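Morning. Coffee machine broken again, so started the prediction first thing and wrote up yesterday's gels while waiting. Chain of 276 residues, entered below exactly as on the submission form.
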Amino acid sequence: MNVKAIALKSIQLIVIVILFFWIFAPFSSVVIWSIALKWYWPHIFPQEIGLDYWLEALGIKKGLAITGAVSIIDALITSVMIALAVVAIATAISLPASYALARYHIPFKPILFFLFLMPQAFPQQPVFVNLMRVFYAFDLVGTIPGVILAHLMPSLVFSVWINTATFKSIPPEMEEAARVTGASPLTTFFRITLPLATPGLLASSVFVFLYSLDEFTGTFFIGLPFVITLPMLLYSSSGYNMQFASATAIVLLIPSVLFMLIIERFLKPEYLGGMG
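Came back before lunch.
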């Protein structure tokens, strides 16, 4: 192996090491903080470690800290249930809308796409502040249905855009062949189109689920003071207790990672190649 090849391999190794630390160093710091009972400057590692804050955060043990009165599990259940509800409603709305946008000539179609994009085109805070004023009139502020609707509005961007691209990637000739053999439009959709579109629908569900799970601004303005999700718990604890905030951040990652691993089993690159 010549000097040039050795230098190239060395550079590649250095880049990989840098990327590894760039990606995993922040997470490793969070893990260490979650078990650090005593960690003061200038010590590189905690002087004392333990699971006391985890036990308090999970509601297993009561402590002197204010975090002892707060359970991560309750916030996690609330976050996951809201996210699943948002996925179900967004899919139910976007499925017929996306199919119509992909298959039929609809007047002002670019304007409709632009309207779906509007919630993401502006800063989130003024959008949710004005939405809160509207929700007050319908007694939706401080309720889980109100938070679900707040998450649903920006989530439709991912759902409609990805599902529309998915239906566009399915050749119309396959539907026409089914119709020629006597299949009704409804049978054609459920027996031909929908199975072929399933990978794309799963992809949009991933985006919607992860967005809702991590959403903070809408939950803050619409959900307070009665709806507490994991992002809300993480925000409220990060200012006074790094251990509790780190434990919350790790728990917040678990559903996202599990969801992605499950979906990855069904999503293949060749399925999504025509979605662009």
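Residues 3-35 form the longest helix (33 residues). Going to sketch it on the whiteboard this afternoon.
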